[in-house]
């Protein structure tokens, strides 16, 4: 079981000031298997793969056999006292775990196209909309919009309300210094730009 934990530890992302009970992982599927054609990996296969990986990470944390673990289908997402949040694209996944059962949220997204960003910005708070449009180019800041969306999703997942709550109600704030409710931390995960993803995680303090 220690070998299992050590393997997944290489995918762990650590943040300055984050409590020990919070563990975050970012995994690009092609890093697990170079022969995996992630360009043609559909949502359902990515979902199954990310859930299988999550079970193995949780098994390593809990010191249990992964064959004996199942993931809940609805919140609260808790396995053996570990609260977790999982997000995936067809190429990568982000997972945050609290070993003390605190609420957590994660979101990872592929960078939007300009057309997608133009639609996505419409669901943000008006103050965010103004902040996320380039005054010089008079068009949406695509990467910043995608990052801001991961801030919003991670926090809403952590609060366990998801998009049932109107995303336009709450201001995200500056991408590098997002606004958070009292008692919460929210951070962006710094990912290589060439891999075309952005991600954020949130946890209850």
From TrEMBL:
Native organism: Corynebacterium kalinowskii
Signal peptide: none
GO molecular function, one term: holo-[acyl-carrier-protein] synthase activity
Domain 4'-phosphopantetheinyl transferase, chain residue ranges per copy: 103-168
Protein's UniProt name: Holo-(Acyl carrier protein) synthase 2
Keyword hit for Transferase: yes
Pfam family, one: ACPS
Highest taxon in the source lineage: Bacteria
Keyword hit for Cell membrane: no
Keywords (A to Z) from UniProt: Transferase
InterPro entries, per the entry: 4-PPantetheinyl_Trfase_dom, 4-PPantetheinyl_Trfase_dom_sf
């Amino acid at each position: 079981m220690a070998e299992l934990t050590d393997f997944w530890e290489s995918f762990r992302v650590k943040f300055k000031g984050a409590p020990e009970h919070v563990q975050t992982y970012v995994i690009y599927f092609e890093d697990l298997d170079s022969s995996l054609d992630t360009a043609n990996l559909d949502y359902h296969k990515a979902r199954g793969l990310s859930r299988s990986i999550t079970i193995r990470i949780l098994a390593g944390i809990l010191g249990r056999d992964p064959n004996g673990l199942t993931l809940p289908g609805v919140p609260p997402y808790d396995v053996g006292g570990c609260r977790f949040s999982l997000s995936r694209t067809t190429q990568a996944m982000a997972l945050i775990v609290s070993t003390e059962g605190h609420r957590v949220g994660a979101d990872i997204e592929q960078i939007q196209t300009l057309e997608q960003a133009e639609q996505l910005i419409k669901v943000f708070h008006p103050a965010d909309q103004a902040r996320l449009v380039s005054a010089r180019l008079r068009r949406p800041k695509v990467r910043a919009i995608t990052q801001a969306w991961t801030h919003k999703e991670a926090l809403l997942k952590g609060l366990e309300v998801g998009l049932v709550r109107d995303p336009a109600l709450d201001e995200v704030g500056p991408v590098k210094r997002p606004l958070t409710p009292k008692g919460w931390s929210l951070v962006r995960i710094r990912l290589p730009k060439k891999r075309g993803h952005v991600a954020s995680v949130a946890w209850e303090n």
